[in-house]
Amino acid sequence: MASVMLRILLLLVTLPLSARAQTNGNLTLGSSLTADDRNSCWLSPSGEFAVGFRKMGQGAHLLAIWFEKIEEKTIVWSANGDNLAPEGSKIQLTADGRLVLADPIGRQLWSPRSIGTPVMYAAMLDMGNFVLVGQNYINLWETFSQPTDTMLPTQQLDQGTKVHARYSETNYSAGRFHFKLRNDGNLAFYATPNPWDASDAYWVSKTSGSGFRLIFNQSGQVYLTARNGTVLKLITSDTVLTSGFYQRAILEYDGVLRHYVHPKLANSSSGLAKGWSMVSSPVPPNICHSITQTVGSGACGFNSYCALGDDQRPRCHCPPGYTLLDSTNEMNGCRQDFVPQSCDGSRLETDQFALHEMLHTDWPMYDYERIAAQTEDSCRQGCLADCFCAVAFWGRSGTCWKKKIPLSNGRMDLTDVGKALIKVRINNSTSKSTGNGNKNSTLIIIGSVLLSSSVFVNLLLLLITYLIYRSFRSRDSKLSRPVQINQAIGMQTFTYQELQEATYQFKEELGRGAFGTVYKGVLRSEYINFVAVKLLATRTGESEKEFEREVIAIGQTNHKNLVQLLGYCNEGQHRLLVYELMSNGTLADFLFGASRPSWYRRIEIACDVARGLSYLHDDCTRHIIHCDIKPQNILLDGSLTSKISDFGLAKLLMANQTRTTTGVRGTIGYLAPEWFRNMPISSKIDVYSFGILLVELICCRKNYKPESEIEAQIVLVDWAYDCYHDGNILKLVESDDEASSDIKRVGRFVMTALWCIQEDPSLRPTTKKITQMLEGAVEVPVPPVSSSFISSV
């Protein structure tokens, strides 16, 4: 009897553990984990590694692998950093052998590439590798061959494999840094997601023609081998005794590869500090000096400079007169904090600017003019008189090097002999002062007046001073609540008065459209957060609760290619939305401006917009049809990442509050035919609009150009079809050397666009399929002849 009771007691004790994780053994078909507050996981046989869900914030979860037996629970691999899973999502090894991450209503968020061969079981191995195993115990898929930012001992990477740094310390979406073992045998590090040329690498192994495999061995060395196994180059040089340490090599978010070890036992006598310790020289040793390409933003983003800190890690700073674009991420670059010099010939404003000296600081490889045999004074005067000059560098054998905005590859290093002369406006009357300094100067002025006035006037001014002080205190208290930038934390509600004050009585207009007018605002917390406040044009037809429900649904979207809704105001007749401020404006301004964006940048924009639409249509909690995709509704952030704006707003407005009174929502030129044919409206209307936008991105011009001298080119999509039908796609980009040299991709993009603008909505691909077409993951079939093009054939 006692034995039976003991067995029951042991069973009860182990129930919570088995509910949380499978501690050993293979995972059979049908096994699953649910994303909840318990950080559910499957363990490796020794319990040293776990795979499962890690909570990233309220209601947001990351499917990941981590070190389970150390306090930090350091993540070494993740699946869905770009698309976090909501509460209640499930990872399951299905009955048919597929590993699928799906949200609570069954929509797929992530799955490994198609395997084709039946999977027998899955396993979390003690080396940190999660595998799907087929017949004869062959690994059909494994995380070791699909790394994110980390390598572990025994891991090997073959040619063509990429390792991506994450966006920031806490954001596991893909950042701009990566390294790749190229097919030419070189291991190369890049500072852009899709480098245009092999020469864009900021560190190369110089093993061309022989590099075959990158290996992290159990002795703690990362090295390149030839096809026959010969060691060609050591990437990390130190050998570490592995018995008492965990190890990892990680490409960190600052673009540097570092090798770390961690004692397995808390009381380890290794002499190393507790936690992770770096044990090998980083690669590259000084990234501030390594990035010297003539395009791109460098290590720290545009208009900033990089300097190694005391810990030999790169630190990003803004020069005088500049502030961070994003106060939460110093690597996103800086913006001018003053009105630039006018290029109006009638007013040079030379006396309105001064030059600030910065020793040992330079933005190399980014000069637009070099003048030899200069004195420092003539270099200064030349920059002050030149409205394009933002910085002059002087000191290299009497040469003056002029640089203009945006500044790139900035660095501060004692080996750079000379000085940078930063041009800054002396009295920037258009800048808005913030903080206590402004209050103090006001009180000083009032105090001096009090000392020289009559008693009556003194008393009156004292009362005014008190009221001003109360006004400042009231304003600060109302705007002191922190802005929740991360959607997972939740949106903020505002009063109408708060947003009036934040926008200085709706003073600075950023733009206007069908849904309302957008104003620039600033919300004060520990940092100054710039926002865009959209004042909806009219009262919506929804009740207050319905309005809030729809706004919250929009706010629950979470994708890097969507403009983030931070909060809203729903007060009486006032309906306002508060968004993150996109510092580089609209795609329309960027695409149709005086200078043509690079072909690479246009490729990135097209793919970004397709990914954002795919998320809206298929992956967010409530499917959203945008209804007005056009360049004016695509915004660019500080790093020129494109984000879709105004999504979901069509549902907030009644039909008679949109652009026409017929129920049509959108903009002429981008509207799908079904709007005018009494046909059902579906997500395919966005696909049609995207097709028009894609052709505009390819050709870098507006779809409708009535002033065109050639009649066939007035409507861009018609001309694009004519060029495609005639086999002369090159004609579309003949003045664009970059695009012309990438004509195969141009053809793929044109064919994708022609599929998107088919008159029959059923023929148009989904946005998920469009993304695959643009990325080259699937072949693009020959598009059919749409009836709208018959006349032009």
From TrEMBL:
Keyword Cytoplasm appears in the UniProt entry: no
Domain Bulb-type lectin: 18-145
Binding site for ATP: K534
Record's signal peptide: 1-21
InterPro entries: Bulb-type_lectin_dom, Bulb-type_lectin_dom_sf, G-type_lectin_kinases/EP1-like, Kinase-like_dom_sf, Prot_kinase_dom, Protein_kinase_ATP_BS, Ser/Thr_kinase_AS, SRK-like_kinase
GO MF entries: ATP binding; carbohydrate binding; protein serine/threonine kinase activity
Residue intervals of the Protein kinase domain: 504-790
Class in the EC hierarchy, top level: transferase
Pfam families: B_lectin (PF01453), Pkinase (PF00069)
Localization, UniProt: Membrane
Catalysis: reaction(s): L-seryl-[protein] + ATP = O-phospho-L-seryl-[protein] + ADP + H(+); L-threonyl-[protein] + ATP = O-phospho-L-threonyl-[protein] + ADP + H(+)
EC number: 2.7.11.1
Keywords, comma-separated and alphabetical: ATP-binding, Disulfide bond, EGF-like domain, Glycoprotein, Kinase, Lectin, Membrane, Nucleotide-binding, Receptor, Serine/threonine-protein kinase, Signal, Transferase, Transmembrane, Transmembrane helix
PROSITE patterns: BULB_LECTIN (PS50927), PROTEIN_KINASE_ATP (PS00107), PROTEIN_KINASE_DOM (PS50011), PROTEIN_KINASE_ST (PS00108)
Stretches that traverse the bilayer: 443-469
Recorded GO CC terms: membrane
Sequence similarity: Belongs to the protein kinase superfamily. Ser/Thr protein kinase family.
Designated name of the protein: Receptor-like serine/threonine-protein kinase
